[in-house]
Amino acid sequence: MLRQIQHFLQFLHRENYFRLLFVILIIIFASGLALSLLEPGMSFINGLWWSVVTLTTVGYGDISPATAGGRVVAIIIMFFGIGLLGMLSGNLATIMISKRIRENKGMETITPQDHIILCEWNHRSRAVLKEMRADPQTEDTAIVLIADIDEIPEDDSNLFFVGGPVNEETLQKANLEKAATIIVLGDDTLEPTARDAKVVLTTLTIETLCPAVYSVVELVDQANEQHCRRANADEIIIGSELSSHLLASAARDHGISTIVSELLSSRYGNDLFLIPLPEKLAGKTFLDGLIAIKKEHDATLLGVQKRSKGRLITNPDAEYVLAADDCLIIISATRIQES
């Protein structure tokens, strides 16, 4: 709170508001004193009230000067009021427009918390943004884009922009320390080897600055996966590998790509979700959980994630015992909210 007050005071000083406010106060006190001396029976407090009402051009009319001297003071205050208010409103409009331009150009420091940082802007970034906005869990989540482009590319009230290459400076401006997740995409302007090398270097920078943030990174070549593992990336997605697997599966089992596309998209059909284990299923077998999830939520249980180790188990044995700290991987039309 103290730091915010200091920033506000620095802002007032930088924009010369102290000088303008000082002039306004002097005029209010001087005119209030003059009116209390010139007008019979008027107190200094009433004089101040009249000065404020007149200077702001409100003009309630509850107090008005009757003497010639008082009216001269009123004329002076009226002219000064118009000029000072014009200066004040003009400065405020300039500051707001300037701030908006700086935000659109990615020149401002971002202050949200528990947000998602998206590195690089390309057609995949646009698709990621659309998918997250289609999911009720992230439709209102603050997303900070770091990209070396001229201005913010999308009209989204919860999308913030930091301009420049992804490095320590821009990551700090994006408030990396308070972020929940960061997505590192490849730079399409580079050839594949250099692109993956940049992703690995960016991941290393992120994990050095803030190991607690969950990092999801994109690679082109599976051979570079080990380098990202050494950089402590939490989750690695290899685009070429996924495409190859999907193509092979579609050739072998016709129509399988349609199902995969539906499950991976939040915009239509059923989706894949990772949810905490419902308390009543703790200690039950996987088969019991599968039946209960289907009966109560019309969802299909696919597997389990061991939260303590992050290990995924797809299609466990029917007698696998569900632990209280397990998470369930399900197919469902909507996210199950039961805890």
Features:
single chain, 339 residues, alpha/beta, Helix Hairpins, Rossmann fold, Alpha-Beta Plaits, 3 domains, six-stranded parallel beta sheet, four-stranded antiparallel beta sheet, 47% helix, elongated
Summarize the structure in words:
With 339 residues, the protein is of the alpha/beta class. The chain has helices at residues 2-14, 17-38, 44-55, 68-104, 123-134, 168-173, 192-209, 225-230, 239-252, 256-264, 286-297, and strands at 116-119, 143-147, 159-163, 181-184, 214-219, 235-238, 271-276, 300-306, 311-314, 326-332. It has 3 domains: 2-104, Helix Hairpins (Orthogonal Bundle), CATH 1.10.287.70; 116-242, NAD(P)-binding Rossmann-like Domain (Rossmann fold); 270-339, Alpha-Beta Plaits (2-Layer Sandwich), CATH 3.30.70. Helix 2 crosses helix 3 (44-55) and helix 2 (17-38) packs antiparallel against helix 4.
Describe the protein's topology.
Layout: H1 2-14, H2 17-38, H3 44-55, H4 68-104, E1 116-119, H5 123-134, E2 143-147, E3 159-163, H6 168-173, E4 181-184, H7 192-209, E5 214-219, H8 225-230, E6 235-238, H9 239-252, H10 256-264, E7 271-276, H11 286-297, E8 300-306, E9 311-314, E10 326-332
Helix pairs in contact: 2-3, 2-4
